[in-house]
Amino acid sequence: GDSVTQMEGPVTLSEEAFLTINCTYTATGYPSLFWYVQYPGEGLQLLLKATKADDKGSNKGFEATYRKETTSFHLEKGSVQVSDSAVYFCALSINNNDMRFGAGTRLTVKP
Amino acid sequence: GAVVSQHPSRVICKSGTSVKIECRSLDFQATTMFWYRQFPKQSLMLMATSNEGSKATYEQGVEKDKFLINHASLTLSTLTVTSAHPEDSSFYICSGVGEPGNTIYFGEGSWLTVV
Fold it and tell me: What is the pLDDT of residue B61?
């Protein structure tokens, strides 16, 4: 079935370091891909999304490119801040039906 | 823009009692709503798909008699955890599908603690 596999955490970085969180997917159709962020004690927030191959989603300095050839949607940010500390979820959706989430990656950024 | 509101955000109930969580779509009509559960340090798992005016579709392993879902209108779906046990303590979050472009919007989530 459709599924998402993302890099296991936790990930600990120093402020201004480069971030990559890997995400690959398996899908029978043509999924839309998403990254959600969950700050401590809060619900999910959509960070960015891409709906077709080669699309690049970007928001708040984060970006991810929908790579059909490698079935990947890796999340990157050039310079992380302490405020980026959160859990990041990669997810897919076929025809905007239910979401399939990855296991989540906890990021801690230290000053 | 479209918003999904969940209530209550936090609830503590005694073991054996029932608790209801509401999920409302604001400014849009959600024919379909989804309910997820997230245990500590784990990912979100789909529990059920709720369609307005019909019975919910439950994922394998989710007890439909324990987790009652009612989607009585295009803007409201409710999840009732019946005869709650401490192991039902979890983060429950709903989402609704709305415009533009059939976008999926998530509620803020509800933290349930059963004592």
Answer: 92
Enumerate the residues of chain B whose CB falls inside 8 A of the CB of residue A96: 97, 101-104
pLDDT in tens, A55-90: 999 999 999 999 999 999 999 999 999 999 999 999
Q: Are strands A56-59 and B76-81 parallel, antiparallel or unpaired?
A: unpaired
Are the C-beta atoms of A60 and A37 separated by less than 8 Å? no
Residues 36 to 95 of B: which have CB under 8 A from any A CB?
Answer: 36, 42-46, 49, 93, 95
pLDDT value at position B2? 60
* Rounded Cα–Cα distance for residues B78 and B68 (Å): 8
Of B44, B97, B108, the CB nearest to A101: B44
A67 by DSSP, 3-state: which? strand
Q: Structure tokens of A89? A: 């979820």
